[in-house]
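One chain given next:
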Amino acid sequence: MYKPAIGLEVHTQLKTESKMFCRCKNSPFEKQPNIHICPVCLGHPGTLPTANKEAIISVVKAGMALNCSIADVSKFDRKNYFYPDLPKGYQISQYDQPLCYTGYLIINGKKIRITRIHLEEDTGRLVHDGNHSLVDFNRSGVPLMELVTEPDIANANQAQRFAEELRIIFRYLQISDADMEKGQMRVEVNISLSEKQGTLGTKVEIKNLNSFRSVQKSVEYEIERQKELLEKGEKVVQETRGWSEEKQKTFSQREKEEAHDYRYLPEPDIPPIYLNEPPFNKNKISLGVELPAQKRERFKEEYFLDDYVIEILVGDKNLANYFEKAFSEGLNWIKESDKKCDKKEFARTISSYLISDLLGLMDSNPINNTLITPENFGELIVLVYSKEISSKIAKIVLKEMYISGGDPSQIIKEKGLSQINDDKEIEKVIISVIKENNKATEDYKNGKEGVLQFFIGQVMAKTKGRAEPDTVKHLLTKLIKNDIN
């Protein structure tokens, strides 16, 4: 039985105003090539880099959120290698004194150890056009955070979940949007198989994975590929492999028998970073945000929501904030009207309408783009919860709110959607439905109670959803039993 040992390297572009070592705008996705550049990020001789304070603090925050030790002293190094999109012939990175080290992240109850988090500059971007290769340096020098784990991950699902949780944390901290499709977060997988727990086999690296699905599928494939080789008595070759989304398989890029000699040198133009004193002083850096794991626990204790619902809400900080504001505003509406409220049921009603109905209207748009304020959304749910409007009417009103951003009570008044509370008015509609459906009435009398739902549907259609369903059911049952024709 072969045991996988999986480690990840995660590169994340930081969301700073300027690049890592110069004042050029941090805009790696600018469509016009080579406009956010200067002699520093182009590697001109004689230029002097200056470290970006905001980027350093962002990495420290990431380390704090991931239970890392923060270095007292850190430094930058030159990582020497040649590539066409690296104009200096070396990359300013960190080697033996990273900003953060020995952290961990718990995924589904398992502690995944984090070896280090360090800071470096991103390279330029190559564009291949026929027989030519063009270089766009807009990305050159963008702050790039690299996180390296220990080989503690045991399977593809854990690898995917780890990467997903990192993205959520980085977004909560507002240090990166970590959009994998845009290349703001890139994952590389190191994987080996061995027969004994705690030992490592021959390592294979899978480069540049740009989606969570690719992380999962590439690990699944590579585990099976290596297992087949070992079961045949063949050796796994230490190499770098790529992932083909089209073929859903890894492919060999280059063999890597020995680690590349990058000839790391201390960067002479950037002084050491002292994190126990200004301007950084790690003891005074605050995250200023409730982390996803903490929010999950609180949502479970405070709102009694299911794990599935909590995962959707907490997965987007703006969505979680919207839910809480809507809940709070709704609760105030209920208190002011002196009505009783089951907080558990009210929270479930709000989350249900938010996830199923409002997000359904919005498709893929972020919640902060909606015209519906949390206050108005909370008011609408109060009207549903207190049975002042039916679910059908609520959906009609919600669509109108989505278009206009209007107040639900005002929309109900203007559209004539208010609840019918007069039992006699509802009875008139029920009598007409019964008279129009004699056969269904007889079926109900003969024991086919399922027919009752047909009658309720007919009454709700005639009242355009303005009758309260429980009231309709009660009156229907009474009138049919009284043999009204």
Remarks:
- Residues 21 and 50 are 5 Å apart (CA to CA).
- Residues 212-231 form the longest helix (20 residues).
- The longest strand covers residues 110-121.
- The mean pLDDT is 91.
